[in-house]
Amino acid sequence: MNTVNTIKVAVLGANGRMGRTVCAAVEAAADLELVAALDAGDDLAQVAASGASVAVDFTVPAVTEANVHALVDQGVHAVVGTTGWTDESRARVADHLATSAEEGTAVGVLIAPNFGLSAVLAMTFAARAARYFESAEVVELHHPNKVDAPSGTATHTAQAMAAARSEAGVAPSPDATESGWEARGADVDGVRVHAVRLRGLVAHEEILLGNEGEQLTIRQDSFDRVSFMPGVLLGIREVVGRPGLTVGLENVMDL
Questions:
Q1: Active site annotation includes 156
Q2: Would the annotation count 15 as a binding residue?
Q3: From the candidates 77, 142, 194, 204, which is the catalytic residue?
Q4: Residue 129 and residue 217 in one domain
Q5: 142: annotated active-site residue
Q6: 243 annotated as a binding-site residue
Q7: Is residue 22 part of a domain?
Q8: How many domains are contained in the chain?
Q9: 139 and 169 housed in the same domain
Q10: Domain with 52 in it: what CATH number?
Q11: Using one digit for the tens of pLDDT, what is the confidence trace for 110-137?
Q12: Residue 53 carries which DSSP code?
């Protein structure tokens, strides 16, 4: 039997691999209730009509921003695992949330590049370690059905590392490359990020840090999508008390 404290949840992208896993996790949680499961083409007005207070978005980059704006307009909190976000798209959401708050509706949106607790810890450790090493690079490895590269997790990791290095006054990583820059991966705020797409993989990341005579490797592996569910459920429970935009699960964990 549901208690008065049950959080009613809608899932967008419910027929996808992650969406199906989220639906199962929500249904298995005693303090959550799955009240709507929507997929491509479904009317988002069903979210508010279902009574959901939180919607989880695991759709595709092409529609996720529009989904979030629609949820904010409905006064529904959002937990977003879809990647492909930019500084500009996040800023638009933040502005929308601020306007909504001024109009009397305080809504929270959590955008997390990765909901795996091990992945969040790896990102946090990498940011703390990056200032102590001359060289820093990231390798992300995913299944070949992933539509964006580099991954949101790797981008988030590199940005946090770059910010820590800049704050500490660390010089750019040494690199004598003169030609073939396309083989050096993406430049994310000065940290090189390499993307691998390989059948059999799920989601994996290596952070490589080097000094003269030493190397630190931080590796995180997600072998099954169920590994993301504790983070998703944490996000659902936390977002209702966090109005405005929160980026990164680390910001709702006690780190």
A1: no
A2: yes
A3: 142
A4: yes
A5: yes
A6: no
A7: yes
A8: 2
A9: yes
A10: 3.40.50.720
A11: 999 889 999 999 999 999 999 999 999 9
A12: S
